[in-house]
Specification:
The protein is an alpha/beta fold and about 625 residues long. The chain is about 35% helix and about 15% strand. Bound molecules: flavin-adenine dinucleotide (FAD) and iron/sulfur cluster.
């Protein structure tokens, strides 16, 4: 895949890529590994009667460019899979980074180190199980905030997290190892469909906030109003105080255009030249200046993910956090959730049973994949569990500039353009992903792809996010593994293409020489190509998408036939069982969701505290008042 050009080393001949990637893939579950193996085998035999791995350099290069020109969706899917895996391994090779000149160094503008976060205490599971008032499954944006809110209300809270506990003292320095360690299925959770869409989520104490970009948005009023009117989320327009509290606690600040990096500045200049509305993004990372490496965990914890913000706050209020504990099933007695049966990972790697009894409530905060998975395994929540998956399909639109952009010297997600957010459902965000993630989306294959990699310092990029109406689902396969599917509609595909055209327009207005729309049939766009591009009808399968915001799989709906939870987050049909995470969203939220998940978790926690105060037991009498 990487034959070596102009000082970039050849994969395998000069630098080992397949070895580290094979090691990386060891962290996958058997079910996902099997699917990947089938895909790789299909790729290997695609040049039948020859095998890809036995082709010489020239023949392999020719074969890859043939695949890239192919009209068959399957060819593109297999090519993309091979490109993603090989670029992942190749991009983190020190000799490659040295040749391109990428330097990763997290820092604050004044050179200081962020103050240390409070302690999480002993996160090892204790004995064969524990008791508490409220057990929370998952420690991400929803679970962590619910834990802090309820612990501060005087309830005895236990948080269970399937992933491990990491912070700036121990994130794996090796980037492949970091992905394998911090992400569920090493980031290879993919929603099957046409096109298939990678939807990575984290598996770590702090959830996906450990590896996210720190972008903070409030939900658009019109979305919240539709949730109130159409889904009975009666409090949807009353989130201002919760947003404000979280913004203050997470020290959310708007980026200074001087410090956001050239990638964001180019998007800003292009948007301003077109008169398109936008602004520097608000983030929870204070005055950090570098370095576009948020998806590996912030080496200085400048970004206030849940593991360095709400979870220490919960622990300070008496909550316990247990890492490496996966909830398998909700325990129900007499129609009421009373705890969770779990599997706990010991330091040796051995799994052992672990049971938690909850006197007051069980809260599922496992995210839009983990929560329906738990409910399905438990047979709870009714037929809507796992349905209505929305993901914000996203597309990377790169461009080549004559000037040096050096996108890694700036904030990863830096400037948004919301000109087309309300009427065309498209939000643009200048986003510069590290080469390990973004490299696969660069143009070309073989030598051509390597030249694109060499040119990475001249690449600017804008992410296109769609507020989707298409739907998917999350289910359990026969062997019990998670299965996600997503069906992009023609209409949504047209909106994505519209967004790609607008991103291209911004790039050109900022001085880009060429734009990569990430649709193989469209090739490379040059100034003047946009009218023809926009007049072309592309099938959904022709788009190359990824997505970072799964939501909606246990949604709130006043009509139980259309959802899983009531407006207070309680799961239909089971008393004492709640959801507090992205699964609750009735539809796509349209902007980066973390802050709205936090606001929802605050609301649901209040309902839980009220329910707890109404029940006999250990809970503090003033719980409801304390969180009101
Ligand atoms: C690369 C990337 C960048 C992003 N950038 C942004 C951004 O800049 N701004 C933004 O607003 N959003 C961003 N997001 C999305 C955002 O981080 C998530 O939407 C949000 O964290 C979801 O919160 P959650 O509580 O629903 O789930 P998560 O934060 O995913 O947390 C769920 C946790 O539950 C655990 N869990 C699941 N099942 C179980 C179980 N059975 N037992 C025990 N534990 C379990 C998981 O391991 C996980 O740690 C990004 C996402 C990605 C992937
Ligand atoms: S860009 Fe991300 S990883 Fe780098 S210092 Fe800032 S928050 Fe940390």
């Amino acid at each position: 895949m990487a034959p070596g050009v102009d000082g970039l080393p050849a994969a395998e001949r000069e630098v080992d890529v397949s070895g580290p990637v094979a090691e990386f893939l060891r962290s996958l579950s058997p079910a996902v590994l099997l699917r990947l193996r089938l895909g790789l085998r299909a790729f290997e035999w695609l040049p039948f009667p020859w095998r890809f791995s036995r082709l010489g350099t020239a023949a392999a290069g020719e074969f890859l460019s043939k695949l890239e020109r192919s009209r068959l969706a399957l060819h593109h899917e297999l090519l993309m899979m091979a490109k993603i895996l090989s670029t992942l391994g190749y991009a983190v090779v020190p000799a490659v980074e040295a040749r391109i000149g990428t330097e990763i160094g997290c820092a604050l503008a004044d050179g200081s180190l962020p103050e240390p976060a409070g302690s999480l205490g002993d996160t090892r599971p204790q004995g064969e199980g524990e008791e508490c008032d409220v057990v929370i499954v998952g420690s991400g944006a929803g679970g962590a905030v619910a834990a802090a809110t309820l612990a501060e209300a005087g309830l005895d809270v236990l948080v269970l997290e399937a992933g491990g506990r990491y912070d700036r003292d121990d994130y794996p320095a090796d980037r492949l190892e970091a992905i394998a360690t911090l992400y569920r299925e090493a980031g290879l959770t993919i929603a099957a469909g046409s096109p298939p869409i990678p939807v990575p989520v984290a598996k770590a104490v702090g959830g996906t906030t450990v590896i996210n970009s720190g972008t903070c948005f409030r939900a658009p009023d019109r979305i919240l109003e539709s949730w109130r009117q159409e889904f009975g989320v009666t409090w949807a327009r009353e989130l201002d105080a919760d947003y404000a509290e979280a913004e203050e606690f997470l020290r959310v600040t708007q980026l200074d255009p001087e410090r956001m990096g050239r990638n964001g500045q180019l998007a800003m200049e292009g948007a301003e030249a077109l008169g398109a509305s936008g602004a520097p993004i608000h983030r929870n990372a204070g005055n950090c200046v570098q370095c576009s490496s948020c998806p590996f965990g912030c080496a200085i914890d400048a970004k206030r993910g849940m593991h360095v913000s709400y979870l220490p706050r919960a622990v300070a209020a008496g909550a316990r956090v247990r890492a490496g504990v996966e909830a398998q099933r909700v325990l129900v007695e007499g129609g009421r959730a009373v705890g969770v049966a779990c599997s706990a990972r010991e330091e040796s790697g051995r799994q052992r049973p672990y049971a938690v009894r909850a006197r007051q409530a069980v809260i599922a905060g496992g995210g839009a994949f983990g929560t329906p998975e738990l409910l399905l395994r438990s047979g709870l929540g009714g037929p809507q569990v796992g349905r209505n998956l929305r993901v914000h399909p996203a597309c990377w639109v790169g461009a080549r500039y004559e000037e040096e952009v050096r996108g890694w010297e700036g904030v990863m997600q830096s400037y948004y353009v919301d000109q087309w957010e309300a009427d065309r459902r498209v939000l643009l965000e200048a986003t510069f992903t590290p080469l390990a993630f973004g490299g696969a989306w660069l143009a070309g294959t073989g030598e051509e792809h390597q030249r694109s990699i060499l040119d990475f310092g001249h690449v600017g990029s804008i992410g296109v996010h769609l507020c989707d109406r298409s739907r998917g689902s999350v289910g359990l396969a026969n062997e019990g593994a998670l299965r996600a599917r997503y069906g992009l509609t023609d209409d949504d595909a047209r909106h994505v293409v519209f967004g790609i055209a607008r991103a291209a327009e911004i790039h050109f207005a900022a001085g880009a020489a060429e734009v990569y729309p990430n649709i193989p049939r469209a090739g490379i766009l040059r100034p003047g190509d946009l009218p023809l591009f926009e007049a072309t009808r592309f099938k959904p399968s022709e788009l190359r998408l990824e997505a970072f915001h799964p939501m909606g799989t246990a949604r709130i709906s006043a009509d139980p036939r259309r959802g899983v939870c009531a407006a207070d987050g309680s799961v239909n049909g089971t008393a004492g069982l709640y959801v507090a995470d992205a699964s609750l969203f009735p539809t796509s939220v349209g902007v980066n969701p973390m802050m709205t998940i936090i606001a929802f978790a605050r609301q649901i926690s209040r309902a839980v505290a009220t329910g707890a105060a109404d029940r006999p037991g250990r809970s503090s009498a003033g719980a409801a008042e304390a969180v009101a």
